[in-house]
């Protein structure tokens, strides 16, 4: 089942990006700097519909396109399958961190212990969730919608397996949500895509509201916090990417109030030995604001006074909404874009990946905001099934890149600064040229006087590691829990770089005319 475009997915800390290419397998790229994006793994001729990598480890989770109810976990560095999980219905989305793996089905959510893939809990009887919406923080807080008519969501602690608060985030259905890495803040947006809200995840208090646009409703494709939690990046099907600045003072205050309320509740519980509900936490945190709380400046004071005494609630909400702090203008609207914000070197960058297979990296001024300048474009599209074609000069001393757009080191940086779509079109045209018939290739060789060869990695040696011996044949010797645990521990170690000449020495094979 070929897809209409590439499916690109950042890992949890935006240090790598995975690319699904229809029925041509998947590739993983490491993002080391704005001008250094290298392919570290490629697997061809297999069709997957979902991929998720665990941070910067060798552990990846895949959903085969021909078995959508099956979840496959593997160590890509050793090409080892660790386990398969089969569910009653299709797996729509997957989330994971260092402790938990979350598999989202349309009407249920399955929570696994990632150390041994034991299923710990199933959240069932949910409202239909055809988009597989959910978000998982580093500390394993899980948020998911509980209504398919309104924007109501629930927070669940997947470590303690306890149900948390419910938040009525929007009037219409949710289309995207994302936790800060700490799990303290939660951003949401509805299917209308005009308003983005930020809540305190501990008590459900609304901290901030952003206005993405007024003129039209849009489809939100990606909603993510930066790694430091100070900025929120939003992509849609329009030509503009919006970056909002989070009010960290208001956020810190809400979190402190929630934590204080939690401490008070524990004291009351110890003294009275009475059960307290989660609603008590929210009521305690929101109850009574002292006059000293309204000391954030004359503009805030006037806005609150006018909204309280003179204006209806809807108008006051619009006045309180913040506009974009920075923007990125895309060259081709209408496509699906996913975004990320992280530090590359010592500076924060905006990462935007498009479904046509390109990664765009933009500058970002954390102090002044404004328009973010494009600094690099990287081509993440596939080549001839992992084979690199090169030209060899007559004297055989020098090798120059051939018609393929992929160089042996895996990095394909098209351009920096003045990037445009003509470069992408040229790369696409170049790749099409490599797929021409052998007769055309022979004719060209006669005209230019240049011979060709194909550089190809040899077949890897069988895995004779301890983990491979323990695993044995998959069908004849199913993995025990302890063996599975050892494989998982081995997979989450920081991987070494693949495709270096010491591990996979290249072999030259003469091409036939």
Automatic annotation (TrEMBL):
| Keywords, comma-separated and alphabetical | Autophagy, Repeat, WD repeat
**Where are the stretches annotated Disordered?**
394-446
Transmembrane residue ranges: none
Q: Name a biological process GO annotation.
A: autophagy
List compositional bias (Low complexity) regions by residue number: 420-446
Q: What is one GO cellular-component annotation here? A: cytoplasm
Q: Where is the composition biased (Polar residues)?
A: 401-419
- Matches recorded under Pfam families: PROPPIN
Recorded family membership: Belongs to the WD repeat PROPPIN family.
Name used for this protein in its record: WD repeat domain phosphoinositide-interacting protein 2
Which organism encodes this protein? Ceratitis capitata
Give the gene that encodes this protein.
WIPI2
